[in-house]
Task: structure prediction
Amino acid sequence: MRFYRFLLHLFPVAFRNEYGDEMCWIFQKRLRDASSFPSKLALWIATIWEIFTNAIRVHWDIFRQDIRYTTRTLRRNPGFTLAAILVAALGVGATTAAFSITDHVLIRPLPFADWKRLVKLWENPPGYTRNELSPPNYFDWKRMSKSFETMGTFTYLSTNLTGEGEPERVQGVLASSEVLPMLGVQPFLGRLFTSQDDRAEAPATVVLSYGLWQRRFNGNANALGNKVLLDNEPFEIIGVMPRGFYFPTREDDDFWAPIRFTPGDDFEDRNNHYLQAIAKLKKNVSLEEAKAEMRLIAAQLAQKYPEANERTTANVLLLRDEISRQTRYLLIGLVCASICVLLIACSNLANLLLARAMGRRKELAVRSALGAGRERLIRQLLTESLMLALLGGLLGICLTILAMPLLVRLVPNSLPIAETPTIDLRVMVFALIATAITGIGFGMIPAIKTSRGTDANALNEGSRGGVGGRRERVRSAMIIAEVSASVLLLISAGLLLRALLRIQAVDPGFNYQNVLTMRTWLPIPKYRSTAKRGEFYRRVLSETRALPGVTNAAYITGLPMVMRGGIWSVEITGRIWERSEEHNVSLRYVTPGYFNTLNIPLIEGRDVSDSDTQDSLPVGVVSKSFAEKYFPGQNALGHKFKVAMGERTVVGIVGEVRTRGLEITTEPQVYLPNQQVPDGAIIFYTPKDLVIRASNPLSLMPSIRQIIRNADPDQPISDVQLLSDVVESETAPRGTQLRVIGVFAAIAILLAGIGIHGLLSYAVSQRTQEFGVRIALGAQSSEILKMVLRDGVILAATGIVVGAALAFAAGKTMETLLAGVKPADPMTFLIAIAVALIMTIAGSLLPAKRAVSVDPTTALRTE
Amino acid sequence: MKNEEPSPESFLPLPPATLHILIALAEKDLHGYAIMSEVAESTNGELKLSPGTLYRSIQRMLEQGLIIEPRQRPAPENDDERRRYYRITPFGMEVARAEMRRLTQLVKLARISGLVPRRV
Result:
């Protein structure tokens, strides 16, 4: 019988109290009637089953009733309902959006088999954390290491795809045969490379990406076995990768071809760093063990080849972690900010509901008097909050979907993942949990408090709410939390804004307005001869300059902030320095007119000119920092230096350019005349980026296409963009993050203001009689005003102090993001505190006004 | 709390348990166990209400106003002090009649289409 009573606990309390005894009595009777053991057993089984099913049904009945009741009450208070749903939506939306993007970038597994064991290997020469490998080092590493199941190498290749259809610039990868199989992805069509394909004399083969296959072959399976022309060389198509396969990054994913090391090529040079290395850790080897082993191997090689490898060590990083620290901080900052918003939203909702529940004390007391039990009331209130939270959650997910296009800009390009995060099941679950926590968070406290307060007193019209009682304290604590969270967000947003402004104020060293840029990568061997390339440049440039509105045009190896590398070591003739010293410059070949086109000031001497040819004196133009570093206190003009396998004479000094970007210092720059590239040498440095300064640059595109087609009909054009877009994209992720956190901060401060308003309004309404008595006894309006405002200001001040302290701590942790702005930047703190105070006063004003205008006679009569 | 009286038709069709409880209570007030026995007897044991189903139905029927718990107890010789008795309300009667009308119509319709043998 005890067990039967225990089973009855499955029913709601009210039902059990009402019918439990009767049910026990009936069960007892039936048990007595059942004589034999089998019939007793059958009775028990049937009983357990029926209690389960009926309990669910009873709960469901109550739930439906509560939903009906909730819908009715919510409809009766559309203002409250809307506010609550919106607040919940903002909280859930912010959290879901931030989580989706962070999950996508930081947490989600890579779409490769055993992705946790995939690592990238890097050389660590002094001054650089991730340097590419030279082929001899790669082969030594591969041969000597024991930590890896397999190791492969690849390098990026940008090439002209010609043949049928428009010529096209495609980005791909030359990879050794280990690379693709290591990822565990099967080709969509055909096969992957084998070690046979790696042989130098093997026929040229290529695997296409799904996108390129669709684009060039309309998804026709007959493409297998066909040949495509890459820089005019035929490659046989042996496979197509599946849709959504990106490797190594989302940007270099048009094709994969075997990498080949032909004897006599420059691959025996230990100083020629251009290989990426990827490997899979053995199952029982940890990342740290692999690192230790690689450092040991690097040390051995440094001893053996001090010329090239001295002080060069090795680094092993998980493929998953191929993102910059900045991106990581951006995202973590975003998640923290969104959690602040969620917390504020929750406490605000709790306040909203609590205030509302206090207003409903009478209604609840009546229901209680009519026989509704405490459990029943809590349950009803919880249903109400959960329903609000759920509606808010749904709206929040809609907000997330709307916000995605903005947030996508935070996804870095350096990972082999899709650009757009999907709002999938996991994120949905997260949103639902966030919603449920919100629901229970703001439903439970008011529900318990209200039901505890449902006593006969509540029915008494004259009963007063406890002033400064426990209920007040909970609400005050919530207000303090809200204010601190919003001050935290305000200060963080302020610091990030100052950092952004500071970076945007950095002079890139050139004028990027009204400059159109595009890339025409001249293929080798067709353009092996420098003279032939020169012909192409001269023709394109002279025809472009003749177009209406064009001020000037020129070619360069790579645009600043697009080509960030291109580093060579330099020697000054007649000077010897320690091997340990760093003497690197950023090297570019240019056509005459480059400095003029970008408004880079020519400080001294002359620009490169058409008369600088392979037959004339090798010359170079250097940047101001180069002149100051190597020829301090003297005129650099006429001095000689060695770079790129030749001695040059300084003929000009130009202004400094931020080649590596706005936030990073750049090596001194050296510009060499394009005609002084030896035939077929340092191909990577041949000028390929066209820059055009014009009054209305974008309108020129059709004419320029025509000019290039006339010069070479097979020459594709790629990367058409405005130079201003290049420079602005430097700060785009920061801008996005700032906008998001700025919006969060705005929401937070608004919610906190509403919270203060709600709390004070409630407190004032509870103290109407007290104010009436005070006024009747001769209190001045200003005193009453002070009393009310004081409450608000004390709460706000406490919140501000806590928030400012948190903000300082947050600023310390994200100092790398601040571009030199101090975490305790006084201006930012002052403004944020002022905003918070203004919000507090604005929130307190209405309730204070109401308190002052209390009419003593009316107030006392209600007593 | 209810503002408008729902029509008896809005309850149709009635769940079998509800209908049988109404039929059982049409004659006289009964307590829970008696309702169970009555229903089992009148259906030749085909419908055996479990206590859970019974009281769940009773709770809902009380809320819907189909039955009440009367203040007056039955004659002392029939009264079991510990038991709670239930009585059909006039509205409950109306609902039961409406259901019967609906069922009769249904049977008529079935006869016309030959789905039911002439003699039931």
